What we know:
Layout: H1 3-16, E1 20-25, E2 30-34, H2 36-41, H3 52-55, H4 57-74, E3 78-89, E4 92-109, E5 115-124, H5 126-181, H6 185-213, H7 225-240
Antiparallel strand pairs: 1-2, 1-5, 3-4, 4-5
Helix pairs in contact: 5-6, 5-7
Amino acid sequence: MSIHQQSEDLLAFLKKAPGFIAVVMGKSHTFTFANEAYKKFVKNRNLVGLTVADALPDIAAQGFVDILDEVFQSGLPFFGRDVKISVIDEQCIEQESIRYCDFVYQPVRGADGDVTGIICEGYDTTRIHESVQKIANLQREIIHLSRLNAMGTMAATLSHELGQPLTAIANFAEAGRRHLMKQNPQGAINALDAIAEVTDRTGLLVKNLRNLTSGQSNEHSEFNLKAAISECINLISAAGDPNLR
C-alpha cells in the first residue's frame, strides 16, 4: 500500500471518528480540516478555509481563541474537561444550545520545531453531564424527602412521648385548683410537687430525644425500677382522674 493510499485511509477514518477532530493552521487559526463529529458539534457550519473567529464567532467570543493563541505561543497543550459551550444555530440565530465537552488543543510543529498549527480533539459529553446533573438532583430530592420523613417521625415521637406527661400536668393542675377551692393546702402542695416532678421528667425526655437526633450517645445510668413503676402509675392515674393523687 502506497503512502498516498495510507494517507487517504487515515483521512477517511478521521472523518468518521466518533470523537470530534479539527485542525487549524497559522497564527490566525484557519481551519484546514474538521471531521463530521466536529461539524455536528458546531451545527454543521462551513469551516475549512475560514478562521475560528470568522467561522465560529459565538464560540470565539467565549474565550477559545485566547486559548488557541496561548497554545500557539507557548507550545504547550491545553486540556479542557466538562467545558460549557454555548452554540448558536445559524438556521435559527435565536436558538442557543448549551453543550459540554472534554477536549485537548495539541500544538503541531514543523520541521524546524516551531508551532505551525493546532489539533483540536475531544468528545461531546453533554449527555454525561446532564445525566450527572439528574443524579445529583435526585440525590438532593432523596435527602430532602429523608429529612421530611425524619421530621415527621420526630413529630410523631414527640406527640406520643409528650402527650401523656402533658396530660398529667394539666390534670395535676386541675386537682390543685380543686384542692385550693376546698381550702385543702396540703392537697394543692401535693399537686404542685407532682407537676414539678413530671416537668423534670419531661425535660429529661426532651433532652434524650435531642441527643438521639443529633447523633450523640445517650447517657446510661442505674435507676430504681420500683420508683419508675410508681411514676408510671402516678401518670396513668393523673391522666385518668384529676381527683386521684
